[in-house]
Design a protein that fits this description.
Layout lengths: L1 E3 L4 E6 L5 H14 L4 E5 L9 H15 L4 E5 L2 E3 L6 E3 L6 E2 L5 E2 L6 E2 L3 E4 L4 E5 L6 E4 L2 H8 L2 H7 L4 H9 L5 E3 L4 E3 L5 H4 L7
Parallel strand pairs: 2-3, 2-4, 7-13
Antiparallel strand pairs: 1-6, 4-12, 5-14, 7-12, 8-9, 10-11, 11-13
């Protein structure tokens, strides 16, 4: 079966203040791609109060708490990759990453080439330990809860970016990623760490 991402409920996490350029850019990207059912989710602004990752983590958690499933949660710094296509293999009941990252926590801390990718199908791999959160498909509330229910405890007890929590959860909950990611980060500092493909066998 196939999944058309243009038809899936989609949420873009974006700060409401001082963020007009990013919002205009995302709106243009989604219009060009024909993504229909999407909206902004106002990120929690913790600037000058807490580390940025707390606002990022709680924004993901709050978004998923009110989302209509199935859904895709995007961050506002994404752009389509050179492998973009709107129709992909349906992961059914699995969480699916639409983007990749070279960063992972297999060693116990976040570092380059720290993720594990196990061949699954021609289009997908099973992913473990990958740090990423810029484009994720959640098939159901039950699937999302296996990730988001742990966010508050993690950021308060561990005080680390929450995508490291997601990397840990991947080792316990079977999670998929695309071998050819359809989104990457639109940032010169992170573009090359998110714009690569996995070798399919």
């Amino acid at each position: 079966m196939e999944l058309d991402i243009r038809e899936i409920n989609s949420y873009v996490l974006a700060l409401n203040k001082d963020n007009e350029d990013r919002r205009k850019n995302i709106k243009s990207v989604f219009e060009n791609l024909g993504i229909k059912r999407w909206s902004f989710f106002d990120s929690i602004d913790v600037r000058n109060k807490f580390p940025y990752w707390i606002g990022c983590a709680m924004s993901h958690r709050e978004c998923l708490a009110t989302a209509q499933f199935p859904c895709i949660v995007y961050e506002d710094d994404i752009k389509p990759s050179e492998w973009y296509r709107p129709v992909i293999e349906d992961p059914k009941d699995k969480v699916l990453y639409l983007g990749l990252s070279k960063w992972g926590t297999q060693s116990g801390s976040s570092q380059l080439d720290g993720g594990v990718f196990l061949h699954n199908t021609r289009e997908t791999s099973i992913v473990k330990y990958m740090c990423s959160s810029h484009a994720i498909y959640y098939p159901s509330k039950e699937a999302a809860d296996k990730y988001s229910n742990y966010i508050t405890r993690f950021i308060l007890e561990v005080n680390r970016p929450f995508d490291e929590l997601y990397a840990q959860r991947q080792a316990e909950v079977e999670t998929l990623c695309l071998n050819d990611p359809i989104f990457c980060q639109d940032d010169p500092k992170t573009f090359h760490d998110t714009h690569f493909r996995l070798e399919s066998k």
